Amino acid sequence: MAFNLTSSDNNFYVYALIDPRDDAIFYIGKGKGSRLKQHMNQKLTPKNNIRKYIRINEIKALGLSVKTEALGTYLDENTAFEIERIIIYKLGREAFLEGKLTNYTPGGRWNKGDSLYYSEEENTDFDVHSLDFVSAENLLSIKKISNITHLNDLPFKCIYKYYVRSNYPVQLISIDSNDCFFRNEKYDVTVLFLKLQIPLLSQYSLFSQHLIKDVYISKHVPYYRCQYYEAVFYRQLDDKIESGMERFSIISDTVKELSATYSDSCLILKSDFGNEVISEYFYNYDGKFHNHKKIHYSDPKNIPKVYYNEEQLKSSVLTPEDIKERDAASRDWAIHMSGENIKD
Q: Strand, coil or helix: what is 261?
């Protein structure tokens, strides 16, 4: 695609990357010159958009080519920013459970440090009379299909953050406004909290939309990245462990997605979000439960993550292809979860 433009002020364009398998738009961008082509040869770095990278490489692996479409041309930069922002808002971002776009930022004049979330409904009105006919038709044809939860519409106005660790006193360490919490906390915590609005554990932090008077942390089972929290469940889990039962399975009465299964000296603790396992921990028991190495297979948004203990790792036989897939998936997951480093 070439844009032979004569005006140095109106040499920007807004474009879409399209999956040829279903003709669905999966990325919206703005730029000038050869910006559009740069996506096709982009290497994976900690600053790249991992979802876009995976989609493009999936398409190329099938021998297909990503389709591109110029949605707006002959634009000045301010207009290009505005159109990009509007389209991303209308279609929604997959990373924030709004839609199917692989964009990470809201587009427009977003800068590092700005919130990635929408406080209120965005204004999508635009005077198309300032555009050429084709650009105007393209913008008008894009209808809002996103499903966005706005921060100002949440039924709570602050989030309580506790420091929690087994055998340590529970401490309330901050009460943050919605804007502060969603701007500063890690991506995996904020995106789940926004959609589920139930208490979440993440490493040594517990987040809740209301003051929790009864906090109980398991004395036996460590916890890591992000999982649901419910005091009754963790008390029941510890009681089962201390009873010496050879096998058991429990599900939280109030958070149905939270469950634990113990058999053959191994415990699997799961937090599910829809059909996706957001946290699944595998522990080996020889008097106490241990934290073991974790291996991630394939794209985490599609395949439940499986965790192995040290003995299984030593005794497992992996082909060179298995090792390559494992290492690539672990790297992809690490980059995916460090969303604050992603620039687009």
A: strand
- Considering the domain architecture, whether residues 142 and 175 belong to the same structural domain is answered as no
Whether residue 323 lies inside any domain: the answer is no
Helix axis angle for 50-61 and 320-337, nearest 10°, is 150
Domain count, the chain: 2
Q: Are residues 225 and 112 in the same domain?
A: no
C-alpha to C-alpha distance for 25 and 282, rounded to whole angstroms: 38
Rounded distance between C-alpha atoms, residue 118 and residue 139, angstroms: 21
Domain interval for residue 56: 12-151
Terminal Cα distance for the chain, rounded: 22
Tokens found for residue 50: 């991992």
Between the CA atoms of 321, 323, 329 and 333, what dihedral angle is there, to the nearest 10 degrees?
A: 180
Q: What is the pTM (predicted TM-score) of this model?
A: 0.74
Residues 142 and 211 reside in one and the same domain = no
From first to last of the 344 residues of the chain, give the pLDDT tens digit: 333 333 457 889 999 999 999 999 999 999 988 787 777 776 656 567 888 988 998 999 999 999 999 999 999 999 999 999 999 999 999 999 899 999 999 999 999 889 999 999 999 999 999 999 999 999 999 999 999 999 999 999 999 999 988 778 889 999 999 999 999 998 888 988 888 888 998 878 999 999 988 888 888 776 666 788 899 999 999 899 888 888 899 999 888 788 888 887 777 788 776 555 555 555 555 555 554 433 333 333 333 333 333 343 334 445 566 556 545 554 554 444 444 444 56
Count other Cβ atoms within 10 Å, centred on residue 93: 24
Q: How far is 295 from 297, CA to CA, in rounded Å?
A: 7
Q: 164 and 139: one domain?
A: no
- Cα(8)–Cα(307) distance, integer angstroms: 55
